[in-house]
Write the structure tokens for this entry.
Amino acid sequence: MVNYNKIPQATAKRLPLYYRFLNNLHIQGKDRVSSKELSNAMKVDSATIRRDFSYFGALGKKGYGYNVDYLLGFFRKTLDQDENTPVVLIGVGNLGTAFLNYNFTKNNNTKIEKAFDADPSKVGKKIGNIQVYHVDELEEQIGDIHVAILTVPVAEAQPMADRLIESGVKGILNFTPARITVPNDVRVHHIDLAVELQSLVYFMKHYPLEEIE
Amino acid sequence: MVNYNKIPQATAKRLPLYYRFLNNLHIQGKDRVSSKELSNAMKVDSATIRRDFSYFGALGKKGYGYNVDYLLGFFRKTLDQDENTPVVLIGVGNLGTAFLNYNFTKNNNTKIEKAFDADPSKVGKKIGNIQVYHVDELEEQIGDIHVAILTVPVAEAQPMADRLIESGVKGILNFTPARITVPNDVRVHHIDLAVELQSLVYFMKHYPLEEIE
DNA sequence: GTGAATTAGTGAATTATTTCACGACTTTTC
DNA sequence: GAAAAGTCGTGAAATAATTCACTAATTCAC
């Protein structure tokens, strides 16, 4: 059996990418694929791909490559694609709205179930078929949801994170520039759009010729 | 003098984060800070912070820490905060609109100068004070801009990237799920929101107690 | 001024990740 | 059915990044 604690984090971060790509191949009706093809398409070294897959056992066949459906089925189980993970979204601004209109459930095992905002003019609406509640109702509405997308103004980030954690949230995708502080059983991934843009510009200037990611 | 080729990429990715944080300290009127304080606030090990800074020379003082203004000034120069990098945005959907309304120039050396979309109902408008042009005008309007934010539908990603590169773009911040193919003097950073969310969920399940990223 | 406390900078160790390169096996070609 | 081509899986090497742990310098408290 696969020991998930032995899977390098770098590998784990690539799994959703692999999954989606395999899903596309499946939809295209392709039934086999080699690590080299995957490498060209996903810009990940082919040895890295083979190594990544190998943590889960021998999934391919020498001289042949990988069977798309088999691999896809395997990742589906591994990434728990069969059970949907419910998510709440806090902060229905521009970015929040973009998420609500983004159809995550397709190709994905996550679904935004409820959205919250402090602005009364947004409360009660449905955006992308998701109901918007007032943040005051957070505690009573959150139910058994343990994942939150945080797209609030930066000043709200920490207080809102505290409330979310108090309500049982264990994972936060934080789009605010604030580096929030959480207990160590709560996982936070930061995505800072300004930092990403600035980082791109810096890399363009100083590492002009290599391919990085 | 600092040899930029010797700066680890992992360090380079943290620089914009450092910069912003120092800027906040500066605004708060703080004039000194230790690697330990920075560590607590930014969730980066203090030894890592000291190591990162040390690539740029001895910026601190033993027993004292770092002088906020000095460090900030140093990073300002290093990250070229003084000259603004112009950026174009392609695809004025929900996510694109979020970017246009996001005030990057504050705390940042980048500025979205022009936006493009194929939808005639969006062309001619101003969003977040940025003019929206029709994509057909891309080549004549792009001028000397070398950085693009790509927030178009996935099917448009590669063709649009090709056009951008043809027009002289050297850096693309790609928010589509497509892994675009580019010549090796063009830098692409991918940010895949669905992958990020899925990755968070995966890490929550399999690495419940450690702090990552 | 003196001793205690603080803190940067860094050599060395450790840990993590990627990549090379090759044996073993499969498929394809003719 | 034999030879050629393709491809995985992986040991080992290489590279990258983090962290430990200590020295030397400085500040702080009194």
In short: The first strand of chain B starts at residue 32 and ends at 33. Residues 34-36, 46-47, 50-51, 53-54, 58-66 of chain B lie near DNA strand C (CB under 10 Å from a C1').
